[in-house]
Amino acid sequence: MTVNPDQRIAVVTGSSSGIGYATSLMLARNGFYTYASVRNSNKSASLQSTADAEKLSLKLIQLDVTDDKSVNDAIEKIVSEKGRIDVLVNNAGYGLFGAFEDLSLDDIKAQFETNFFGVIRVTQHVIPVMRTQPNGRSGSSIIVNVASINGRIAFPILSAYSATKFAIEGLSESIAYELDPFGIKVILIEPGPIRSNFMKGSLLPSRALDSKSPYSELAHKFYDKTNSQHDDAIPPEEVAKIILKAVSIEKPEFRYVVGNYAASLLETRNNMPYSEFQKMIMQNIMQ
Ligand SMILES: NC(=O)c1ccc[n+]([C@@H]2O[C@H](COP(=O)([O-])OP(=O)(O)OC[C@H]3O[C@@H](n4cnc5c(N)ncnc54)[C@H](OP(=O)(O)O)[C@@H]3O)[C@@H](O)[C@H]2O)c1
After folding, report:
1. Catalytic machinery residues
2. Which of 151, 146, 187 shows the shortest CA–CA distance to 167?
3. What is the per-residue pLDDT for 3?
4. Mean pLDDT, consecutive 10-residue segments, the chain of 287 residues?
5. Cα radius of gyration rounded to whole Å, the chain
6. How far is CA 257 from the centre of its chain?
7. What are the residue ranges of helices labelled H in the chain?
8. 19 lines ligand 1 (CB under 6 A)
9. Which of 42, 157, 168, 252 is the most exposed place for a label (fewest CB within 10 A)?
10. For residue 150, which phi and psi values (nearest 5 degrees)?
11. Ligand 1 pocket mutation pick from 19, 202, 260 by most atoms within 8 angstroms of CB
């Protein structure tokens, strides 16, 4: 076992692209020994070559958040190599578009399996490690859950996705109390639109855009609008910077809203009657 007591050990899920990719690099470039986990090892070449070129303390590891064995093997490997985990970034996830009536129960279960139970699976493996390890140089350990502005404000056509992110909010609020006495912090990252592979990786069941669907016009308009919003969105490095800051300071906030869009939408929602807000959102989508 190689242990450098001065180096904090981080694990990031979903590091093949977007926020996970940027966060793994950001942490490694700033002194964390980073396990950048990917579900498909074929997608690790770019991250590996950047890490090699910059001589970063970054190691690629296979981890599919929906697979018990994969999660177990990955966490066991990290603990056997480094003896501890100081930072867990639960980032892996994807979007599921479609009006609720057009989604099958299987579509929704699969969405929860990755976005919500994936977080649960990894976190339940990591908590006992964090809880029983001696405090590191920088004090306590931290679990960073990448939720979304969609976990605070729900839009049409994203019911299942929003439900997973609202669920992460509730889970995080609750376990933060339980883990605090053990020196383990739990925080939430709530990005607005980020320019990543998110739209490409999102699922859009064919029923959802079928002209026979009573929701077809709404689904088309919302999907197109979301797509163009993501083209113009801020880069994933903006999220990575916030995560780096949160895991580097002694007293991080519990919630970090990322991006002006998300911040101003929340402010608008909080400062107007909810019925007016709903009207405004619907008008904005349909115009
Ligand atoms: N982009 C946004 O606008 C936005 C806004 C708010 C929140 N978020 C959240 O941010 C997180 C990262 O998304 P992103 O924007 O960076 O999108 P992305 O570029 O598509 O990255 C998603 C990552 O999750 C991985 N992943 C998906 N299913 C997985 C599984 N079963 N096991 C392990 N990894 C899995 C993907 O791996 P593969 O390459 O193998 O598919 C990919 O590495 C997600 O939780 C998303 O909900 C995104």
Report:
1. 161
2. 151
3. 54
4. 74 98 98 98 95 98 98 98 98 98 97 98 98 72 98 98 99 98 97 97 92 96 96 96 97 98 98 98 96
5. 19
6. 13
7. 18-29, 45-53, 68-82, 105-115, 117-132, 159-179, 198-201, 206-209, 216-231, 236-248, 260-270, 274-286
8. yes
9. 42
10. -70, -5
11. 19
Q: How far apart are CA 141 and CA 182, in angstroms?
A: 9
CA–centroid distance, residue 75 to ligand 1 (Å): 20
**Amino acid 209: pLDDT:** 87
Please list the residues that pair with 190 across neighbouring strands. 257
Provide the pLDDT for residue 1: 44
**Predicted pLDDT at 90:** 99
3-state secondary structure of 246: helix
Contact between 239 and 189 (Cβ < 8 Å): yes
Q: Relative to the CA of 199, which ligand 1 atom is closest?
A: 20
Do 27 and 132 form a contact (C-beta atoms < 8 A)?
Answer: no
Q: Are 227 and 199 in contact (CB under 8 A)?
A: yes
Distance 130 CA to ligand 1 centre (A): 24
